[in-house]
């Protein structure tokens, strides 16, 4: 799950820890344990976790006008605003931007458009010539096209509507391949998307894949009884042992996996 665009989290796991620590502090204060050494240590842990968010917001570059426009239009849309938690948001957006700039990605594929926050973020990077974004919701396409009308990104972004696995086959049939892929769609299908991309040469040599929400809060490593936690765990285990790639997880918000084709 993604946070709203205005919230700044280091990750859902750290949010949970911060919340739990606050609860313990409150309980100890109610019990009169205000000045004992253990309460001091718990308070210090709370300060460190919450301080990370303040620090991150302090160093984060400003959002671009088009990012701000997408965020505020999402929150104003009567149909989409209730799902605004799906926006990848400013922090993950900056990571995407940084990777696209560092790798010089010219062709970028995104799986999971929603209202286009990450699509515009990536399409607006210096080397990007074409960004193809996939979603199964036609309303998302209409929404994004309305936002892009008359902007410099209008010609750069192509939305493909349909089930992502069908759209990937379509792109393969068109002979497309990409320097960078951002996966942010149905979490239980990450492994299918990944296999489809790698098996069909949709990723160029030395291309990169970023996958959002890889820890799904903490379900991927704490609670594989949830279908998403189980599916992401299976995905991570598969990628870890796939000789075609190197991978690591960035513990940003609820985790972004970075995969590099060898
Ligand atoms: C988390 S949102 C994407 C957020 C977007 N990347 C952003 O930064 O704002 C996930 C999107 O995936 C789409 N989706 C879910 N399952 C899909 C599927 N099987 N095929 C295509 N799109 C799908 C949903 O309609 C939704 O818009």
Q: Radius of gyration, rounded?
A: 20 Å
Helix content: 40-55%
Shape call: globular
Derived structural class: alpha/beta
Unreliable spans are: 1-9
Average pLDDT confidence is 92
CATH class of the largest domain: Alpha Beta
Our count of domains comes out at 2
Largest sheet: 7 strands, mixed
Distance between the termini: 30 Å
* CATH fold title of the largest domain: Rossmann fold
The proportion of strand residues reads 15-25%
Strand order of the largest sheet: 3-2-1-4-5-7-6
The CATH architecture term of the largest domain is 3-Layer(aba) Sandwich
How many distinct beta strands? 7
Number of helices: 10
* CATH homologous superfamily identity of the largest domain: Vaccinia Virus protein VP39
Strand and helix order: HHHHEHEHEHEHEHHEE
What hetero molecules are in the model?
Answer: S-adenosylmethionine
What does this structure look like?
With about 260 residues, the chain is of the alpha/beta class. It has two domains: about 10-60; about 65-260, 3-Layer(aba) Sandwich (Rossmann fold). It is built from ten helices and seven strands. The protein has a seven-stranded mixed sheet with strand order 3-2-1-4-5-7-6, with helices on both faces. Strand 1 (about 105-110), helix 5 and strand 2 (about 130-135) form a beta-alpha-beta unit. It is globular and about 70 Å long. The chain binds S-adenosylmethionine (SAM). S-adenosylmethionine (SAM) binds near residues 118 and 164.
